[in-house]
């Protein structure tokens, strides 16, 4: 527990409050286990005093983070390294998809077939939609802003998006699709105030080695391209 708390203090001093809070919470849990296993009353008392101090600081950090959210100043950055695994959509978005989320905006110019790269970006969007349907949020409306596929791929893109739209409607979710030739930003917004910007959009996974290779179905096991994820919290989520 001592090393974890030491790391929490270092992150705290560096003003990396979100990471610091996680370490404080882990450290407190470990110290509580130590207290239970200790028979020396003097040591117990010292541990309890330290736990009290760390709990007070953790509460102060929580309040600070909450104020940043309310002021629209919250910002968290996640760096996904080249070939890193464990960054499936559920892992990346779960803490922001609270039960009150009912509306989602997706801006990504490449929700289409890119034949040259053999990537099925439409399947990425479909998997993202599946995550929303599974909850715990109660999404009723998804807004997609993307660009048209070029040339002969357009009809295939339209057919696929229409199929996704129809399938979502079976789950009580309405998909609104709009197209823009000038869109270049990639961002995802939830109506609880969270905004997530991924450098590569939803397409940060590497192509699987084969259709029967580990990671083909489970994105948590799929190696990633290097990218940066920026998470913001705003008072009011802007609409398209």
Automatic annotation (TrEMBL):
Gene3D superfamilies: MITD, C-terminal phospholipase D-like domain, Phosphotransferase system, lactose/cellobiose-type IIA subunit. Residues 1-70 form the MIT domain. The keyword Coiled coil applies. It comes from the Eukaryota. The keyword Coiled coil applies. InterPro entries: MIT_dom (IPR007330), MIT_dom_sf (IPR036181), MIT_domain_contain_protein1 (IPR052817), MITD1_C (IPR032341), MITD1_C_sf (IPR038113), MITD1_N (IPR045331). Residues 44-71 form a coiled coil. Keywords: Coiled coil. Pfam families: MIT, MIT_C. This is MITD1 protein. It comes from Sylvia borin. The gene is Mitd1.
């Amino acid at each position: 527990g001592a090393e974890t708390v030491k790391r929490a203090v270092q992150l705290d001093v560096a003003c990396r409050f979100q990471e610091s809070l996680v370490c404080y919470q882990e450290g407190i849990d470990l110290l509580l286990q130590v207290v239970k296993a200790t028979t020396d009353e003097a040591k117990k008392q010292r541990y309890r005093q330290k736990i009290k101090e760390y709990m007070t600081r953790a509460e102060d950090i929580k309040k600070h983070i909450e104020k940043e959210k309310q002021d629209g100043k919250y910002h968290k950055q996640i760096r996904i390294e080249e070939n890193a695994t464990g960054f499936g959509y559920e892992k990346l978005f779960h803490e922001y998809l609270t039960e009150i989320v009912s509306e989602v905006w997706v801006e990504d110019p490449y929700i289409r077939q890119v034949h040259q790269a053999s990537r099925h970006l439409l399947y990425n969007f479909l998997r993202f939609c599946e995550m929303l349907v599974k909850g715990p949020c109660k999404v009723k409306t998804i807004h997609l802003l993307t660009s048209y596929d070029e040339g002969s791929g357009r009809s295939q893109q339209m057919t696929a998006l229409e199929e996704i739209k129809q399938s979502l409607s079976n789950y009580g979710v309405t998909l609104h699709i709009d197209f823009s030739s000038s869109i270049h930003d990639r961002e995802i917004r939830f109506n609880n105030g969270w905004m997530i910007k991924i450098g590569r959009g939803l397409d940060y996974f590497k192509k699987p080695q084969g259709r029967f290779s580990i990671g083909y179905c489970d994105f948590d096991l799929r190696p990633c391209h290097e990218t940066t994820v920026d998470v913001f919290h705003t008072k009011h989520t802007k609409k398209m």
